[in-house]
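Q: Hi! First time doing this. I have a protein sequence and I read that you can turn it into a structure. Is that right? Here it is:
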Amino acid sequence: MLRKFVRNALERFPTIAQYLRNSRDLLDQRSSAKVTPWGFSLAGHDEMAAGTFEPEETKLVRKLLHDVDVLVNIGANVGYYCCHALSLNKPVIAAEPIARNLHYLLTNLRNNGWAQLAEIFPVALGKKTDILQMWGGGTGASLIKGWASIHESYVTRVPVLSLDRMLGSALKGKKALILVDIEGAELMMLQGATETLQSEPRHIWMMEIAATDHQPAGTTFNPNFAKIFEIFFEHGYRSFTADMKMQEVGKVEIDGIMAHEVRLGTHNFIFR
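A: Yes, that's right. Below is the predicted 3D structure, encoded as structure tokens:
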């Protein structure tokens, strides 16, 4: 009952809510770094530092990194996967717009001696250059209003670039693993990635695409789900589940998911 009262009060007074969250984030930036099982240090996320965060996905990312020249991390959060790439001597290009996450991302890179091996862009990725509202923070921040039931009072404005503009010619002649975790804004990002999708050598993409989870209130299924796969298929990519099964996901499977007849057990996918 008390929690509900506080929540309602914060929603009625968004300015106070924003002040309290900003204060919390400033205090949170004092988290100390811990040594991970892979030998690098990490601050800002205890589960990541302990090695219990996305264990199957982590193994897969480290395996895929051996096949590429560089990691492009969109929605890099505190730099967990950036640090994995750099520990394997793979340079990094990363985008992260949330101030709290960006603080830890930069701290983790510097603490491990990788400050000159990573290009960091404090932006979100979308169709074109813009300034948009972002709801929420931490690992759940989204450009999609109502995503994962995020309170509408918790909103910030963030700069937006297209992926093509951000990368420019940085990947010319290079093969990248493009890792995307942007909480529902995947189609917006792909609409600004036409050149990247067509570039040679072809990149490997690993992307979180939720079909039914985290959808805004009143929405039971991601309206962009099939379109995201269609864009990759149109550019000659094949899709696989991002797990150790690596099950191919084609049009038949997509139609089955849309009809609620197929469940794959993961919302992470590889396109290559």
